[in-house]
Amino acid sequence: MKSGQNTDSEKKKRIGIYSGSFNPIHLGHTKLAEYLIDNELVDEVWFVVSPYNPLKKQSELLDEYIRLDMLILAIVKHPNFKASDVEFCMPIPSYSIDTLEHLSIQFADCQFSLVIGSDNALVFDQWKDYTQLLSNYPILVYPRTSYDFHLVADKYPEMKLLNSPVYDISSTQIRNSIAQKKDVSQWLHPSVYQFIIENNFYQ
Predict the structure, then answer these.
(1) I want to staple 42 with a disulfide (CB 3.0 to 4.6 A). Which of 16, 49, 100, 170 is the partner?
(2) pLDDT > 70 fraction of the chain, expressed in percent and rounded
């Protein structure tokens, strides 16, 4: 290799794929993405809105375009964040392996990794083609309360457990609190909170 010449992997922009229902997106999501950027684990975080999650009840979900709109509101001031609707035009249900392979072809100059919670790591063998995911994409695992990654760490040595803060909030808790007329503004971007209240979502 000539002096100053980069390898292909060094040239590629590192993209963390953070897929989810984002129903709604909250500050725990964006703070984790900030942690990934600040600790130079990735160069950008792409939030991929899942129109349908095969492990969740479809009835709980707002329309995917509404969830995308909330996501855009939440990340508008973050230049290293991107809202992606890539799965909107892909077969349903959405599977991470299909999304990552699609993106890898579409953006050949990027190196993609997958960001998942420890709750998902515990059931990772239920994911489609999970061994292929482990082989082809770095997997970054963030801690979640009551889901001990160490229970499966030996099973998945390819996964990297993040030393990130634990953001002890979930979209489910937020939806339930809104339905109970409780204040959740501390966990939502102000524009997202206003959007939810104005449209009477999750009431």
Answers:
(1) 16
(2) 91
